[in-house]
Amino acid sequence: MSLRIISGHARGRKIEAPSTSLTRPTSDKVRGAIFSIVASRLAKSERSFETCTVLDVFAGSGALGLEAFSRGAQGGAFIEQNPEAFRTLVDNINHLGASDWRAYRRDACDPGKPHGTFNLIFLDPPYGKNLVPRSIRALERAGWLAGDALLVVEVGADEAPPRIDGFMCLDSRVLGACSLYLFTRSQEENEIG
Questions:
Q1: What stretches of the chain show up as alpha helix (H) in DSSP?
Q2: Region 122-148: what's the mean pLDDT?
Q3: Among residues 120, 178, 135, which one has the least CA distance to residue 154?
Q4: Contact at 8 Å (CB) between 17 and 2?
Q5: How high is the pLDDT of residue 191?
Q6: Per-residue confidence at 138, pLDDT binned at 50, 70, 90?
Q7: Which of 37, 63, 119, 155 is least enclosed by beta carbons within 10 angstroms?
Q8: Strands 167-175 and 178-185
Q9: Residue 1 — very low, low, confident or very high, per pLDDT cuts 50/70/90?
Q10: Nearby residues of 131 by Cβ (< 8 Å), 6 or more positions away
Q11: How far is the C-alpha of 163 from the C-alpha of 190, rounded, in Å?
Q12: All structural domains of the chain
């Protein structure tokens, strides 16, 4: 299955989705809606993709991170555990020329140490496994998240909204078979940090 980059300098370029049934690529249409929502939220805080360092967690093909790369994100990284998906991810990174972005074959709930911090985090875990709170706690403990991190979380439309300690939900939308949530640190966390 091929996907395409929607906007930016790599617009129209194709990337491959892993052939494994363990990944569920975000469709071009849903990805377009996600990026429109995220761009609007970034603009409200006088930011843009060009001011972001991106982390694509449960990356699969890397479509979310690579879309941000195409839109001018400063830098980024991907976390993907599945070996077949990881190979496809690395091929897509190389195909689009994002060779300075790092790919980690790791468990998102045990990510190890990062090479930097990230302020735009995409999380698209397998549906129905309640991986969002666990992975965010693990990424937070290991130092992956910048203080001003914006979390963009995709879960199944029939799932309960994720609850993430220390973060508040800024926006939520149902986009077909998925629900999208945007989180930032709660006000109390911002005042402490």
A1: 28-44, 63-70, 83-96, 131-142, 187-192
A2: 95
A3: 178
A4: yes
A5: 39
A6: very high
A7: 37
A8: antiparallel
A9: low
A10: 58, 108, 109, 125
A11: 18
A12: 2-192 (3.40.50.150)
